[in-house]
Amino acid sequence: AGRWSFEMAYGIGGVGAAGALPASAAEKVVGKDVPQAVACYEAAAFNADLRTGIDACTEALLAEPLTLPNQAATYVNRGILEARNRDPNAAIGDYNTSLGINPNLADAYVNRGAAHVMLKQFNEAVSDLTKGLALGTDRPEVAYYDRAMAHEELGEIKAAYLDYKNALRVAPDYQPAIRELKRFKVVSKPAEDQP
Questions:
Q1: What is the SS3 assignment for 155?
Q2: Nearest 5 degrees, angle CA 92-CA 84-CA 103?
Q3: Which residues pair with 7 in a beta bridge?
Q4: How many other C-beta atoms lie within 10 A of the C-beta of residue 70?
Q5: Is the pLDDT of residue 3 over 90?
């Protein structure tokens, strides 16, 4: 019996060489009397205009009667928009505030993990993404994909490969993971190569 080796078509670099950005998971906001919070969610979920979305989030947080769950969700959604606006530090601040309101909000961990990937804080990213998965994120493919990117940057090629595969296990048509897996080649090594 041999062991498996994982090779990539072009070096380590889910964030750098491949040019991919981490994915995100928006938090649903519910209520008729919170139109700005809903607009904030829609901007985060559907890639709307960043400035307009961030402004809607801020207006919701300042002026709308948000329940605690909607408040936590709005901080997550503003964080997503800030990260897309290339401000991962502001995003982390909002994710931290959200987690202060609800420390079990899985997608806050997932999105904070994505922001850590952007900041090249890969160990922190793996920790947050693992926590988000354990808490039951609604978008596990996003968490697996982002964690794979972090593992790849840490040189943990097998773990990266397995997380890209896990992303496809839970979402078989998830194009970012399909694209990244094309760079990998799994080869069997003879038993005598084993230590």
A1: coil
A2: 30
A3: 185
A4: 24
A5: no
